[in-house]
Amino acid sequence: ATVSEPAQKCCTENIQPFLASILEELMGPVSSGFTEVRSLFDKEVNEIIQDLQKTNDITKLKENVDQLMNLPFNSVKMEPCYLKVNLLQELLQDLKSRFKVYQIDFVIQRTQNFMQELMENAVYTFEQLFSPSRQADSAKVATTIEKVKLRVLK
User: Fold this and answer.
1) What is the C-alpha separation between 98 and 110, in angstroms, rounded?
2) What is the helix, strand, coil percentage profile of the chain, to 5?
3) Which of 79, 82, 87 minimizes the C-alpha distance to 26?
4) Which pLDDT tens digit goes with each residue over 86-140?
5) Which of 14, 54, 56, 70 could connect to 138 by a Cys-Cys bridge, CB 3.0–4.6 Å?
6) Which one, of 132, 154, 7, 127, lies nearest residue 65 by Cα?
7) At residue 50, does pLDDT exceed 80?
């Protein structure tokens, strides 16, 4: 009871007025990281489509889809996504001094984990939607892949 009123007053005066601007500032790098995940997925699926159109090789298509399923765990390809979020390091340093935010690395790591999870969900959904169509002729498969990609991106 003795702490509640001063704590509430402190939050109301020193933290609450800044929350909207802090959130807006932090969302820039987070949004660009998630946009990068989306772009990477789009690019990888487009490469599968182009390869299929060049080769008409269904065996190669299976290999490419299997590689797509491993995309969330491919640190080299995911690195550009993660780098977008590293900008939080600088933004959170300012918050650290103003608001005593100490878990900067944890915030960045959790955000990167969510990005990886989003990619896992995207490739899993792609595989689930595409799997029944895998046996069609190669002309229809390319169209189906495009439709599935657009559905996943939606």
Assistant:
1) 22
2) 90, 0, 10
3) 87
4) 888 877 777 777 766 667 788 889 999 999 999 999 999 999 999 877 766 767 8
5) 56
6) 127
7) yes
